[in-house]
Amino acid sequence: MSMKFLYMDESKCTGCLECMYTCSYTFDKVRDLEHARLWITKVGVNQYKMKSCMQCEDAPCMAACPENAIRKVGGRVIVVVSKCVGHGACVAACPFGVIYQHAQTNKAVKCITCGQCVKACPENALSIISADALANDKRKSFVKKLLDATKVTY
Amino acid sequence: MLKGYAGQILFVDLTKRKIVKEPLREDFAKLYLGGRGFNSRFLFDMVSKGIDPFSPENIVAISNGPLCGTLAPSSNRYTVTAKSPMTHGVGYANSGGHFGPEMKYAGYDTIVITGKADEPVYLYIDDASVEIRSAKHLWGKDTFETDAMLREEIGDEKIQMLYIGQAGENLVYFSAIINNLYRAAARTGVGAVMGSKKLKAIAVRGTGYVEVADPDKFDAFIDQTLQKIYDDPAYPSLSHYGTPFLIDLAYLGGGLATRNNQTGVFEKYEEVSAETFNEYYRVKSESCFSCPIHCGKYARVRSGKYKGAKGGGPEYESIVCIGTKCGIGDYGAIIYANELANRYGMDTISLGDTIAFAMEAYEKGILTKDMTDGIELRFGNDEALIEMIKKIAFRDGFGNILADGTKRAAEKINKGAEKFALHVKGLEPPAYDVRTAKAFGLGWATATRGADHLAALPNFELLGYSPEKGVEWFGSPKAVDPYATEGKPRMVYWHENFGTAVDSAEMCKYTCFSAYAVKPEDLALFINYAVGWNLTGNDILRIGERIYNVERLFNLREGISKSEDRLPDRFTKEPLPEGPAKGQVVELDKMLPEYYKLRQWDWETGYPKLSKLKELGLVEDAKKYGLYVK
Amino acid sequence: MGLQQEFKTLFIEHEKCNGCRICELRCSFAHERLFSPELARIHVVKWELDAIDVPVACRQCVDAPCMAVCPTEAISRHPETNAIIVDEEKCIGCKMCVIACPFGAMQMHPVTNKAITCDLCGGDPQCAKYCPENAIHYMTPSEYVAYRRKEKTKKLVGKKEKRSPIPQAS
Q1: Which of B44, B122, B577, C63 lies in disulfide reach of B201, CB 3.0 to 4.6 Å?
Q2: Is C71 on the interface with A (CB under 8 A)?
């Protein structure tokens, strides 16, 4: 089953952070950037990057957890809250730093592609997408650029 | 698990909105091979005698073949079958493009549509998921618009689709089913049957794979076959010029059908020659899936009255039927007319022929301006052609009469118009003037779906072979002479049997009937390596003969008797007036009796003999309806 | 100090592509012994209305973004062909390379969900071998530039290929 993940079209993001506020509200009932499971960082003038769980096939967090509290369910990597004891091994294992321990419960939290941030984004910059669809879109954009550049007309 | 095949048949009942999937049985596959074969069997079993082709009781069967989706050269076509509104017999049409393989990858060998939806719908197949969706927003749109709208709505660039245009919705008798914008399952009105079911389109997405039984032998045999295809003398013509090269061939033979076949010499030949197409209109090749021949072309009109017209084609058949047969020698008009035929979804052969017939009636004074909505239906009047095409698609005014095809239009018009209403069994004839190719003439008369060049496609007589080869293949040195009748019955018998098998394997006939790169024993090997069977060349011919006889039985059951195995008088009684083939007619009476003997069909009734039915395993079917002789 | 070694990669003359997708099937068959465009590492982007067909495959970038973003060093270069190679064991299927590739040439295998891309078939690319239009060339950049110069010159001097619509009997 192909893993879908949260993806941002960087050309559309305005850095309003509504996605982060909505995410934290969805799970913790407060609009607090510290509780978001995705991060928007400014990298230049009107340039923003988004970071969030990549829903890896061989997720290092899953491999690292001594309690087997991290599973793949329905194409997503999720934390089984009842099994998580707050080891933190997953936090250390993740190469992207997108899983962390909740400030109050100490349990692991991460993006589970619920889609609330996607709905909240006023610029439609976010989407939950499969690698296949993304590669397809990139191919199409590249071809459009190529044809414009070589001025193909018949 | 069957290799090669998808292994599954999809039944869709549009009345009950029910979807059923059944496994493909190996014994069934061995008897009927796939494609046209599967379809014809379903037609015979599911469509009772005498039903109205536009009623819910008719079916639309769509099949791809066992080699579909693989690298077997040019083997990715699909066939659509239904009871034809034009002939009331077996109707089928074959198309290339990219729909067949996607259907295979999705996991289906055949889709059988029955019943009728209560409102316009389309079928959406995404691998195992099958949905009937509303098409109210698509009804009334042409095929190009439908293609774009479905792509947007479904949101997947890689879907493949087939669809009907407004002509199919309006039950124009010769409506086509279009795929990939410019490919058509055109003949016998299968588009009208689809329209009668209120089915606008089928969209498929298939992410599966095809596995073959012996990949190494399969791959090696492909290499061998590719070499033969590339060595074919016709390869440079087909691959670069496309089917327009046949215009030159027909002209050289004196059979370039002109003005409703009144002559075989067209004074404006230069303007529709292959070189003219190549120089001024051809843009590039646009190929069917996994085909090394890529005969398909894309054309553009860069100047003149029809500047801006563009699209796939026009194919040789279209250049003649909506061109030279209407006295039109202008690629601009032909390309635009072809674009309209694709958009509205109509068979360019029947469409062109019917207009050409009307033009002759007008020239002879049988039709007058007040009858034709003020249109000057004269040969060569391209504006009249374009206007008539639009009127036919919408059954508007005089278009409503022509929309039923030549046979019925002639019956309505009367006044002797039947004399030049050219059709066999109700289906209008293709481009090649058969007075210059007698085996083709016999083929038109005997083909199960009506006047058809593809059922037999006996190119053997046109290829300039040595008399020795004529003896070797079909028992007569004269078999290599297109004007001779000797050897032709055997030629047509063999070609029809093999051609039916090729259609059922959904391979393109350009691999087989060009330089005979693929012969029955070769097709057998392809299938054996793909599926894991042990067929011989003779098995292939027998499978073809079986399917052909099932179609024959269907026709006989409908009351289409042997008297319909005939040709219009123009081809048997009116000699060509000029050119290299001056004086020629088709001596059908010299060929038909021997053909019947070879088929083992009774000369009086046209019914198959019991011995032949036994050989083909069709005794029960024939006995059930009394369609046999002892 | 000599010039840096030039490696052969796939150069695609997309104006010649007719959209037959034999390249996709050859790729799928060569790598998996199965026939499926989903398993191909080359894909033809199509716009049928304008008869546009453009095959897209890995550009074998000198400074490959896919290699740069990989968190587990699963992406390396083949010692002989210099093709991008993905180590399936090291790959964790994070899809960062899919995002990083500007061409959409990195994709995830539909079954293993690990990254795959064109590996030049180890030096004998099947797509280039079988393309009926000779639209795919396995050449070094210098070779390809020389080839294109020759083609352009042929066009400019109006050198026409001898051709006839009528088949020449063999």
Answers
A1: B122
A2: yes
CATH class of B239-420: mainly alpha
End-to-end Cα, chain C, rounded Å: 55
d(CA B399, CA B340): 15
Q: Is the pLDDT of residue C169 over 60?
A: no
Nearest CA in chain A to B284: A154
**How many residue contacts between B and C have a Cβ separation below 8 Å?**
108
Strands (E), B154-230: 160-163, 177-179, 183-185, 199-205
Tokens of C91: 């790959």
Q: How confident is the model at residue C94 (pLDDT cuts 50, 70, 90)?
A: very high
Correct CATH for B8-205 of 3.30.70.2190, 3.60.9.10, 3.40.50.150, 3.90.340.10? 3.60.9.10
* Residue C132 burial by Cβ neighbours in a 10 Å radius (0-12, 13-18, 19+): buried
In the predicted structure, residue B1 carries a pLDDT above the cut 80: no
User: Crossing angle, helix B588-599 and helix B488-504, to 10 degrees?
Assistant: 60
SS (H, E, C) B16-70: CCEEEEEECCHHHHHHHCCHHHHHHHHHHHHCCCCCCCCCCCCCEEEECCCCCCC
B493, B598 contact by CB (below 8 A):
yes
Where on the phi/psi map is residue C93: left (φ > 0), alpha (ψ -120 to 50), or beta? left
Q: Any bridge partners for residue B284, and if so which?
A: B298
A55-110 classified as CATH 3.30.70.20: yes
Cβ neighbours for B260, distance < 8 A, ≥ 6 positions apart: B325, B353, B356, B357, B359, B360, B379, B420, B422
B334 close to B273: Cβ distance less than 8 angstroms: no
Chains adjacent to C (≥3 CB pairs closer than 8 angstroms): A, B
**Strand runs labelled E in B180-276:** 183-185, 199-205
Is there a contact between B65 and B504 (Cβ–Cβ < 8 Å)? yes
Share of chain C above pLDDT 70, in %: 93
State the residue for tokens 């039709």. Answer: B367
pLDDT in tens, B230-248: 998 889 999 999 999 999 9
B581 burial (CB, 10 Å; 0-12 / 13-18 / 19+) is buried
Q: Between chains, do C18 and B275 touch, taking CB under 8 Å as contact?
A: no
Residues of A near B (CB-CB distance < 8 A)?
136, 140, 154
Least Cα separation, residue A74 to chain C (angstroms): 14
Query: How many angstroms separate the CA atoms of B409 and B358, rounded?
Result: 9
**Total number of residues shown for chain C:** 170
Reported CATH class of domain A1-52+111-154: alpha beta
At B118-152, the pLDDT tens digits run 999 999 999 999 999 999 999 999 999 999 999 99
Domains along chain C with CATH numbers: 1-57+121-157 (3.30.70.20), 61-117 (3.30.70.20)
Chains that touch A (3 or more CB pairs under 8 A): B, C
Q: What is residue B403's DSSP assignment? A: T
* pLDDT tens-digit series, residues C33-92: 999 999 999 999 999 999 999 999 999 999 999 999 999 999 999 999 999 999 999 999
| CB B353, CB B186: distance < 8 Å | no
What residues contact residue B303 under an 8 Å CB cut-off, 6+ apart? none
C-alpha B12, offset from chain centre:
24
Residue B257 · residue B433 · CB < 8 Å: yes
Beta strands in chain A (DSSP E): 4-8, 39-44, 47-51, 70-73, 76-79, 100-101, 108-109, 126-130
- d(Cα A99, Cα B87) in Å, to the nearest integer? 69
Q: Does 3.30.360.10 match the CATH number of domain B434-625? A: no
Please check whether residue A23 touches C, CB under 8 A: no
Half-sphere exposure of B187 (CA within 13 A, CB side): 28
